[in-house]
Design goal:
This protein is an alpha+beta fold. It is 22% helix and 27% strand. The protein contains seven helices and 20 strands. The protein has a five-stranded antiparallel beta sheet, covered by helices on one side. Strands 1-2-5-3 form a four-stranded mixed beta sheet, with helices on one face. It has a four-stranded antiparallel beta sheet with strand order 13-19-18-17, covered by helices on one side. The mean pLDDT is 91. Bound molecules: uridine-diphosphate-2(N-acetylglucosaminyl) butyric acid.
Length: 335
Amino acid sequence: MKVFENISLKEYNTFGIDVKARRMVMVEPKDSVECIVDSIRGQEVLVLGAGSNMVFTKDYGGTIIILSRDSSKHAVRQLGNFVNAWGGMVMDDLIQWSLDNGLSGLENLSAIPGTVGASAVQNVGAYGAEAKDFIDSVEAYDLQERCRCTFTNTNCQFAYRDSFFKHYPGRYLILRVVYRLNKEYTPNLSYKALEGLPHDTAQQLRDAITELRWSKLPRPEENGSAGSFFKNPVVDEETYLHLKAEYPNMPDAHPVSISNIQSLIGYKLSAGWLIDKAGWKGCTQGRAGVWPKNALVLYNTDGCSGEEVQSLAIAIQQDVKQKFGVSLDPEAIII
Ligand code: EPU
């Protein structure tokens, strides 16, 4: 375990925002969890994955806990078609590792930044797949009750970019995630944008999805971002039909269930389309901008602060609400 005092978080959030944390504890797979608890010393805690979904608007006065980014062979174990991976492992490394070991399923999630632990917290998703489709269980440490606990897939309460853990920031340290993968490859081509992509092997599909994804997002080494900044909003049928009548070019919304009462169906709109249509694509405000190739992505033009990102996000939310009557919720967590 390594402890850092007064450390810059620039390298620990994908937006590249330069704020400081009072303390940061970096945990290795071999560390005992008891030692982690001792190191917190009663301070406020924030558990950070790869920081790919965080916007820091100010210095953090408590302790940040981060799992080391270990993607070595020690980080992952295979038992049949189950894979048990260290929470700090880079998710994309796990996807490649599983394909190299004859297990498929995760290829549609290729090139999503972030760690294995964050994949469970955020229920990351892309191109017709979500982490929840493959997560068997999650091994966590409850920093409040000071005990290890295992969550089944159901206990994780996964929903669109949401999980049980997301509602308790700083409480659960996700140590390991067990994924149930496929020994036999069946391509998942349900997402419209995948039509025509090479998919004879899972590796081919992974490579094509990686390329497709990077064509829409800033290169992390050039411009920081948090991927999609907003969630796609779910509206009622009346709102959807009204918008569709007014804007026939609006992408068709998919009916989604919005509660466990089957009759309650909502329509998931494309936030990217709404923001684009409102005229924000390519705009900048201060040093924060809206990515010219994808209006759903806010980015750091050069050395921007979290406050600049936040004020751009608020301006977009207000404008979209005024123009379309639709509220946008950030997918990114603003700290
Ligand atoms: N669109 C526009 N203008 C834009 C952006 C999008 O008109 O500037 C339209 C597209 O043409 C398309 C529709 O909006 O008709 C949806 O766009 P896209 O297929 O790119 O998907 P998305 O709904 O915007 C979601 C995820 C992404 C994921 C993609 C692909 C969310 C919030 N975002 O985006 O996830 O990669 O689908 O599956 O659900 C992320 O979470 O960080 C992320 C990148």
